Amino acid sequence: LASRLQGIAPTVFSQMSALAARTGSVNLGQGFPDVDGPPDVIARAVAALESGQNQYAPGTGVPALRQAVARHQRRHYGLDLDPDAQVCVTTGATEAVAAALLGLVNPGDEVVVLEPYYDSYVAMIQMAGGVRRPVTLRAPDFRLDVDELRAAVTPRTRFVLLNSPHNPTGTVLTREELTAVAEVAVEHDLVVITDEVYEHLTFDDHEHVPLATLPGMFERTLTLSSAGKSYSFTGWKVGWATGPADLVGAVLAAKQWLTFTSGSPLQPAVAHALDEEPDWPAALARDLQARRDLLCAGLADVGLDVRVPEGTYFATSDISSLGWEDGLSFCLALPERAGVVAIPSQVFHDDPTGAGPGGQLVRWAFCKEPGVIRDGLARLASAD
Ligand code: PMP
Ligand code: GLN
């Protein structure tokens, strides 16, 4: 294995979904919905397949989708983007993360990243030759500690890789927290790559504030998102990067050698979703909120300390209240004990042991049908 991949474990999501399949467990691990997105959007993809839209799209994406993404950013956030220079379609947000880091980070550049982190960030920072500098969102409330953020910045820091709404904690960064990030970025002349794939999946009165909308931030912010989360098409892998032309250009510069272009027939369908189903994500968020409440109440009933998330697909619990000291051991034993799969949050930390800040934290997905959540909870309740 090349050194650029050394020390990076196989992704926990493949491991845990395989475990769920093998043991017939209820999969509350990997975050994917068990109901697909809007049928008219699927029909639009079928129409594109049947009407000959099956050859290479332009590298930046089909114009209809770039224009729809620009309209989306204007409608929701008042951001004005040039769809030809300031939007690049990618193969999911995963490729957007990869292309952004490969396109921007030089060997030795330091990247400040929220910990726990989505696992592809670690792999891609390393593949780009960068050095990660984690800032930990700590239990029980997983807020951003601005002093820790400031302390993580060194003369070699060039980037912040942000994620809000945040996977796995479910924290939605407040305007105050984001303002602090913006101040640090301006003060140290940093570029911020912000992963906002859960932008529409927020609950109660928590509101997603795109970092790019803060004063002085547009020109130093690259924003990433995806149709996977907003429209429940995680398998379509249609994402996008938006921002100033130089940052989006760097994404394209790397993307052209990764995939060249992304799947043609799905792009007009996602454009249709953004333009014609603008309220669908908000309805999904309302549904998810009820499922969040169902899951959190059930986890509390079985004796887990659970933090009610402000957004995303995920709730985090502390398993020490059940007498367990290590989340990974807990999650590896859970299929056998209860027939349920969950994700140990410690694998999203620099210290992946039980002694680290994520050691007793376990992530549960609630982007599932209520019946599936109830089944999982009933199994947990009857576990030994
Ligand atoms: N970032 C975060 C924080 C995620 O949770 C996910 C979901 N899998 C992704 C990126 C990847 O998105 P996509 O499936 O569009 O590649
Ligand atoms: N984003 C989803 C999660 O965090 C799925 C990720 C994946 O399968 N790579 O569970």
From TrEMBL:
CDD domains: AAT_like. Transmembrane segments: none annotated. Its cofactor is pyridoxal 5'-phosphate. Residues 26-349 form the Aminotransferase class I/classII large domain. GO terms for cellular component: cytoplasm. SUPFAM superfamilies: PLP-dependent transferases. The keyword Transferase applies. One of its GO terms (molecular function) is kynurenine-oxoglutarate transaminase activity. Keywords: Aminotransferase, Pyridoxal phosphate, Transferase. Belongs to the class-I pyridoxal-phosphate-dependent aminotransferase family. This is Pyridoxal phosphate-dependent aminotransferase. It comes from Nocardioides luti. The lineage of its organism: Bacteria, Bacillati, Actinomycetota, Actinomycetes, Propionibacteriales.
